[in-house]
Amino acid sequence: MAIELVPLPLPASADPSKFGDFGREVRGVDPGNPTPEQLKEIEEALYKYDTLLFRDADVTPEQQYRLTKHFDPASENYGHGNNKTGETKKSILHPDLKTIPSVPQVQLIGNGTVYDHWGLAEAKLKHPSHTTFHKTKVSDEDADKGVTRYYRWHIDAALYDLNPPKVTTLYGVTVPEGPTQVCRYDDGTGDELPVPLGTTAFVSGRTMFDILPKEYKSLAVRSKVKYAPHPYVWMAPANAMSTGLGIESEGLELALEELPAWEEEKIKVLPILWKNPVTGALHFQVHPCGVQELIVDPLPAGASRDGALYPDGVHVKDLKEVREILYKMQRPAIAPALVYPHDWRPNDLVIFHNRGVLHTVVGAFKPDTVRAFHQCNLAASVPVVGPSDEDVKQWA
Ligand SMILES: [Fe+2]
């Protein structure tokens, strides 16, 4: 049976004209036991629409792993590596992840204490909150009224040694109900977004590129970013901006010699734009928190220098400047009208194109509120693909 694709219900805040090709609910499939034909259709739909939702899904961790692996059969390990002990304990990601013992590629994430869960006798979970990561935080008084923030806009990726996963699957096992919150940007714009409690918010990397003015499109198509070695350890002492879209430049990052042992060859230098394998569209895919340097190629021969930024290319190593350039390009795409905050129901399964969207945890739970999700992504077997020569010619 052919699968049925239905547009996702958009909140009133969203600009529907920007979501025509974003997000579909998939009906008529059991995602735990899809047929090979259905898998093919799901795969194509994922790259076309970037985020797929299955309602009332019933998937074991093993089935979720198999579904995730379908998108990259040669991949094997969790996106950050299966072994998260030892040196990486210092990473800011460490407290957020609990591995399902029988399927180590699947992580249990959420809030509160979960008992007797797929081989875990007891797991204490903590929903990440902006209060421990941002430089400033919402006042206790406002927090009590339900004001919150984006935690950290990101791509699921180690960004050191391993390739960014192609997709991530998120399965809502226990989804607490609660009042809507207000996600405030606190960046002087007055922007805010009403969000369901504990939403996962998504923005399209394709839209992030599409809405850029011409000179920034040219910059993006010619640019690569160099990530820090062990970026999550490097950034651990630093504080994020109030929008969750990068780090405040206060010089708090660890010095390179303070990091666990690292090798130059394992550092990731990735294009800013990643090419969609099905549509050919370019997606602006930068995890702003982990970036250290910006490398811009000169304009190609024949391109107009009129108004061009860095027409002769540049290698920006000043961290503050790097971040300012990236922020200017990424901030427009997290405007409230461009954000899809998913309203989780129990047994929702979401697959998202991790090489095509940015996402973030939002909101805050009381310590005893139980939320349990299964998350799976796999370090890809192949590197990301940047713009082609034709793309550079078209956009530079
Ligand atoms: Fe994530």
Task: Write a brief caption for the model.
The chain is 17% helix and 26% strand. The protein is α+β, with helices and mostly antiparallel strands. The protein folds into two domains: 4-206 and 342-377, Double-stranded beta-helix, CATH 3.60.130; 211-332 and 389-395, no CATH class.
* Ions, cofactors and other bound molecules: fe (ii) ion
Q: Class of the largest domain in CATH?
A: Alpha Beta
Low-confidence spans: none
The biggest sheet amounts to:
9 strands, mixed
CATH topology of the largest domain: Double-stranded beta-helix
Overall shape: globular
Helix content: 10-25%
Structural class: alpha+beta
What's the total number of strands?
Answer: 21
Order of helices and strands: EEHEHEEEHEEEEEHHEHEEEEEHEEEEH
Mean pLDDT across every amino acid position: 95
**Termini Cα gap:** 44 Å
The radius of gyration is 20 Å
- CATH hierarchy: architecture of the largest domain: 4-Layer Sandwich
What percentage of amino acids are in beta strands?
A: 25-35%
Please, how many domains?
Answer: 2
Tally of DSSP helical segments: 8
Pfam families: TauD
GO molecular function, one term: dioxygenase activity
Organism: Candolleomyces aberdarensis
InterPro entries: TauD-like_sf (IPR042098), TauD/TfdA-like (IPR003819), TfdA_dioxygenase (IPR051178)
